[in-house]
Design brief:
Elements: H1 3-6, E1 8-9, H2 11-27, H3 31-39, E2 43-47, E3 50-56, H4 58-62, E4 70-77, E5 87-98, E6 100-102, E7 105-111, E8 124-130, E9 136-139, E10 155-156, H5 160-165, H6 170-174, E11 182-183, E12 190-193, H7 195-198, H8 204-219, H9 226-229, E13 236-239, E14 255-260, E15 264-270, H10 300-310, E16 318-323, H11 332-335, E17 341-344, E18 349-351, H12 356-370, E19 376-379, E20 386-389, E21 394-397, H13 399-407, E22 410-412, E23 415-418, E24 420-423, H14 434-437, H15 442-446, E25 453-455, H16 470-473, H17 475-484, E26 488-490, H18 495-501, H19 518-526, H20 529-538, E27 542-546, H21 547-550, H22 566-573, H23 576-580, H24 583-587, H25 593-597, H26 603-619, H27 624-632, H28 645-662, H29 674-688, E28 702-705, E29 712-720, E30 726-735, E31 756-761, E32 781-786
InterPro entries: GH, GHL5
Protein name: Glycoside hydrolase-like family 5 (GHL5) protein
C-alpha cells in the first residue's frame, strides 16, 4: 500500500498534544516545570495504532516561518532495508503531515505509521519547513529512540514499549518493586568498558554474547581461563558513553539523498563506522544508542546486555551508564538549534543550562536513556556544568542541575526506582592549582542523598603511577581517602588516566623497576598487583578498573572523524608510540596495516616521522601546507607517501583507525599472565566478601608508610571489621628492595599476637611462602587476616 494511503493525520490527537503543552505553560508554577511536562511529549512515540510527535522549534519563531510551511516528513523504504549492510541505495516514499504549533513547539499525530522493532524496520521521520524560495529544511529529532544512521540523519519511529516488553530481566526489577521508588546503592566494585575495543566484534551484541558465555561457564562451574577471569569478580559494569558521537567532518554522510521529489527520494545509506572513545558527543540522540555499537542496528542490544548482567549466576551485575552533558562537540551546532548553546569552550560548545527548555530536554533525555534499565549513572565532567551570573560577572557551578539529575525517577518493568549516582567533578579544574585545591567532595556535600559518589583524587586524570615518588607524593591524598573516601571511586586505571599516561614524556624519572621496556612499565603501572592490594584491601570507596588496563591492552584518544584538526591531534598523540608500540608489535602483519600501506613499513620509519610532526605543528602554528613542505625537505627523506595536505590527513586517519584496531582487548587475551589474572580475581573477591572495607577508617584502624623511607615506599594498613575480623596488608609501591623483614613484627599498632593467616600474596612472591621473613621488592604485597578473638 502506498505510504499516502497507509497513513493519516489525526488532527484531534495532535490538537490534544498542543493543548496539553498550552495547559502546562499556563498552569505550571514555573516555566521550567512547564517545560518538564512538555518534554515528556517531545520526540516520536507509539501509543496504540497512533504515532505522536513533538518538536521544540524556537528557530522557526526566529525566522518567522508560518505554520502553513511546517510539516512532519515521513520516509518509508520502498524495498527491504538491511541495517547490517555496509552500503545500500534505497528509494523511500515520502509523505507530508501537517503540524499544530503551540508557541515554540510543534505537535502532530499520525495513524498507520510503521514502528520499528527488533524484527521490523520502521518509518523514518523529521520535521521539515519550507522557506520563501520554496527550499526545504529539516529539523531532526534530538530525542529519537532509534537513529540507525546517526544523529545527523532522520530518525526511525521505534516501539519502545515493545522493546521493554521483550526484556529478559523483568524478574530482577519486579523483585525491587515497592510502595516507594527503589533506591539503588553503590556496588562493591566496577569494571569500566569501552564497547568497541572490549571484544573482537566491537558491538553491544558481541559483548552480550561474551557475558552469556561467561555466565554459562560460571553456572556449570567450569574451569576459568585468564580471559574469563578478566571479566569476573565485579559487581557492576560501567560502559563508556554509548550515545551517538560525531560524524566525519568532510563526509561521507551516512544518509546521502541523491535525487527525489515531493513523493519519493533515493538515498545512499552507509552503515555508521566511526571510531571514537565515546566522549565526542553532539547531545542530539542522547536518549538512544550509537548505531556504531549495534550489530543489528536495533537499540534492543543494550537491553540484552543489561538483562544478561542482571541475570548473571550467583549474583546480578549492575550496569552503569555514562552521561555526558558538560559539553557538546561543535558538530552539535549542526544537529540542534542555537538556543541549546551558551558559547564555545575547550571541548566545543557550552550548553545553556539556564534555558528552561534546554534544561528540561536534557533531563528527559537522561530519563529515557536510563530507562533502558541502568542501575547507576556516572556524570562526566560535572565541574563543567556552569552558568554565567551576569549580576556578579562570574561563572557559577549549576549544582541545582546536578541535584535534578540525581532526583530523576526511572521506571522499568513496572518498577519505579532511582539509580545510584557518580559525579566526576574536579572543581576548581581547569584552574592551574586544581590538583592542590580540589577536594573532590563538592557534589557529595551539596547533594541530599548520602550515597552520592565522586571520582576520588587517585581516579581523576593526570595520575602517573609509573614515575618515581608518585606514591609518596600522593600520600597526603591517601590520608584524605582514609577519612572521607567511603564515597569516592578509587583506583588509578580508567579511560582518562591511562590515556594521560601515554602522553607523558618518557625522559622523565620513570620507574624502571616496573619493567624492562616502556610498554612493560606502562602496562604494569596500571595493572600493578601492589596497587590492587592498596585499592581493594587498604583504601575505602568503590574500586574501579578499566578493562584495557587490566588486559594490558593499549588505549588512547581514538577519534577518526576530524579533518581540520586531525593531524594536530595525531601530533599530540605521537608520544604514545613510545609507550605502547614496540618493534615486534608493529611488525605483526595485522597491526598498523593502513600505515604500512602508506609507506611506514617499520616502527622505526613511523617513529622518525612522529618525531618531526609534533615539532612542525608547533613551530608552524599548525600550517599544514608548510608542514608538508618541510617534511618533504627532510634528509635523509622520511618514509611515507608524498607529503601533501591531503596525504597528511590520510596519515592521521590511518593512525586513528590502526590504533583503534590495535587497542582491541582481544589482541591481548592470548598473552595474559595467568597468575596475575588469578591474583586480581582473588583480590576482587576478597573485597566483595568484606563490603565493610568500603567504609572510612575507624579509631582502631591504621595506615602509614615504613619509616625511614630508605629509598622505597612501603605502605602498611590495618583494618577492623564489624565482626572483629582484622585485615593487615603491606605493599611495596616503588623503590629499592627492603631488608629482610617479617611483616607481622613491624611496628604497626594492633598486629601483635598470633592467629594471622596469609590470605593474598602477589604473583612474584612464590606459592611456597606462607609467612615469616621476606625481602619485599617493587610491586610486591601481602594480605593477612585474623579471625575475631
Amino acid at each position: 500500500m502506498p505510504l499516502t494511503d497507509r497513513i493519516a493525520f489525526d488532527e484531534d490527537a495532535a490538537r490534544a498534544e498542543a493543548d496539553a503543552a498550552r495547559d502546562a505553560l499556563t498552569t505550571a508554577e514555573t516555566s521550567f516545570e512547564a517545560e518538564r511536562r512538555i518534554a515528556r511529549r517531545l520526540g516520536g512515540r507509539v501509543e496504540g495504532d497512533r504515532a505522536l510527535f513533538g518538536f521544540w522549534t524556537p528557530e522557526l519563531l526566529d525566522q518567522r516561518v508560518p505554520s502553513g510551511d511546517i510539516f512532519l516528513e515521513i520516509l518509508s523504504p520502498l524495498e527491504p532495508l538491511d541495517l547490517t549492510r555496509a552500503h545500500q541505495t534505497v528509494r523511500f516514499e515520502r509523505a507530508w503531515v501537517p503540524v499544530i504549533r503551540e508557541e515554540a513547539h510543534c505537535f502532530t499525530a499520525v495513524t498507520g505509521m510503521r514502528a520499528g522493532s527488533r524484527e521490523t524496520i520502521g518509518d523514518f521521520y523529521a520535521l521539515a519547513w519550507r522557506d520563501a524560495e520554496d527550499q526545504w529544511h529539516r529539523i531532526l529529532d534530538p530525542l529519537a529512540m532509534s537513529l540507525p544512521f546517526g544523529a545527523m540523519a532522520p530518525a526511525e519511529l521505534y516501539d519502545v514499549a515493545a522493546m521493554q516488553a521483550g526484556r529478559g530481566d523483568t524478574a530482577y526489577f519486579e523483585a525491587l518493586r515497592g510502595d516507594a521508588p527503589h533506591k539503588f546503592g553503590p556496588p562493591g566494585n566496577i569494571l569500566q568498558i569501552h564497547v568497541p575495543t572490549a571484544t573482537a566484534g566491537g558491538t553491544l551484541a558481541s559483548l552480550t554474547r561474551h557475558y552469556q558465555r561467561l555466565a554459562e561457564r560460571v553456572a556449570r562451574d567450569l574451569p576459568l581461563e585468564p580471559a574469563d577471569q578478566l571479566f569476573l569478580g565485579y559487581d557492576a559494569v560501567q560502559l563508556l558513553p554509548v550515545e551517538p558521537t560525531t560524524v566525519y567532518e568532510t563526509g561521507p554522510d551516512f544518509w546521502q539523498e541523491q535525487d527525489g521529489d515531493s513523493d519519493a527520494v533515493e538515498v545512499s545509506l552507509l552503515r555508521p563506522d566511526t571510531t571514537n572513545w565515546g566522549y565526542d558527543i553532539v547531545i542530539a540522540g542522547m536518549s538512544t544508542v550509537n548505531p556504531v555499537l549495534l550489530e543489528s542496528g536495533r537499540p534492543d542490544e543494550l537491553i540484552d546486555l543489561i538483562s544478561v548482567l542482571h541475570n548473571f549466576p550467583s549474583k546480578p551485575k549492575k550496569l552503569v551508564l555514562d552521561v555526558v552533558f558538560g559539553h557538546s562537540d561543535n558538530q552539535g551546532l549542526d544537529a540542534l538549534n542555537s538556543h541549546f548553546f551558551a558559547g564555545p569552550n575547550m571541548y566545543g560548545q557550552n550548553l545553556d543550562y539556564q534555558n528552561p527548555t534546554v534544561r528540561a530536554i536534557l533531563l528527559d533525555m537522561q530519563r529515557r536513556k536510563v530507562d533502558f534499565g541502568a542501575d547507576g549513572v556516572r556524570v562526566d565532567g560535572a565541574q563543567d556544568f556552569k552558568w554565567w551570573d551576569s549580576a556578579a560577572q562570574v561563572l557559577r557551578h549549576d549544582d541545582d542541575f546536578l541535584q535534578e539529575m540525581a532526583d530523576i525517577e526511572q521506571e522499568v518493568a513496572g518498577t519505579r526506582y532511582r539509580p545510584w549516582f557518580i559525579f566526576e567533578d574536579g572543581r576548581p579544574w581547569p584552574d592551574e592549582d586544581w590538583e592542590l585545591s580540589s577536594d573532590y567532595r563538592a557534589v557529595i556535600t551539596a547533594q541530599r542523598d548520602d550515597d552520592v559518589f565522586q571520582w576520588g583524587p587517585l581516579t581523576f586524570a593526570h595520575n602517573t603511577p609509573f614515575l618515581y615518588t608518585f606514591w609518596l607524593s600522593k600520600f597526603w591524598r591517601i590520608r584524605e581517602m582514609l577519612d572521607v573516601g567511603a564515597n569516592w571511586i578509587s583506583g588509578t586505571s580508567n579511560h582518562d588516566t591511562l590515556r594521560r599516561g601515554t602522553q607523558v614524556n618518557p625522559k622523565l624519572n620513570v620507574n624502571t623497576r616496573l619493567g624492562r621496556t616502556r610498554m612493560e612499565i606502562l602496562d604494569k603501572a596500571y595493572d600493578n598487583p601492589a596497587v590492587h592490594v592498596l585499592t581493594y584491601v587498604a583504601l575505602p570507596g568503590v574500586p574501579m578498573d578499566f578493562l584495557n588496563a587490566m588486559a594490558r591492552a593499549s588505549w588512547g584518544f581514538i577519534r577518526n572523524q576530524d579533518d581540520r584538526y586531525g593531524v594536530k591531534v595525531v601530533a599530540e598523540e605521537a608520544i604514545s608510540l613510545k609507550w605502547q608500540v614496540d618493534e615486534y608489535s608493529y611488525s605483526v602483519p595485522a597491526n598498523f596495516r593502513r600505515l604500512k600501506e602508506l609507506g611506514f613499513e617499520t616502527r622505526e620509519e613511523l617513529a622518525r616521522f612522529m618525531e618531526f610532526l609534533p615539532a612542525l605543528v608547533e613551530v608552524t602554528e599548525y600550517d599544514l601546507e608548510e608542514i608538508a613542505r618541510l617534511l618533504s625537505k627532510a634528509e635523509p627523506p622520511l618514509a611515507g607517501p608524498e607529503f601533501t595536505v591531503v596525504n597528511l590527513k590520510r596519515i592521521a586517519r590511518a593512525w586513528m583507525d590502526d590504533m583503534h584496531d590495535y587497542c582491541n582487548v582481544s589482541n591481548s587475551l592470548p598473552s595474559l599472565d595467568g597468575e596475575q589474572a588469578a591474583f586480581c580475581l582473588a583480590t576482587r573477591n576478597f573485597r566483595r566478601a568484606r563490603p565493610w572495607l568500603r567504609d572510612n577508617y575507624g579509631p582502631k584502624d591504621h595506615f602509614d608508610y615504613l619509616h625511614p623511607v630508605s629509598g622505597r615506599t612501603v605502605f602498611t594498613s590495618l583494618r577492623h571489621g564489624p565482626d572483629g575480623e582484622q585485615v593487615f596488608s603491606v605493599a611495596h609501591m616503588e623503590g629499592k628492595p627492603t631488608d629482610e623483614i617479617d611483616p607481622l613484627t613491624l611496628a604497626v599498632p594492633g598486629i601483635k599476637g598470633t592467629g594471622w593467616r596469609l590470605a593474598l600474596r602477589t604473583p612474584s612472591i612464590g606459592g611456597d611462602y606462607t609467612g615469616g621473613p621476606i625481602t619485599l621488592k617493587d610491586s610486591m604485597a601481602l594480605v593477612y587476616t585474623r579471625a575475631p578473638r
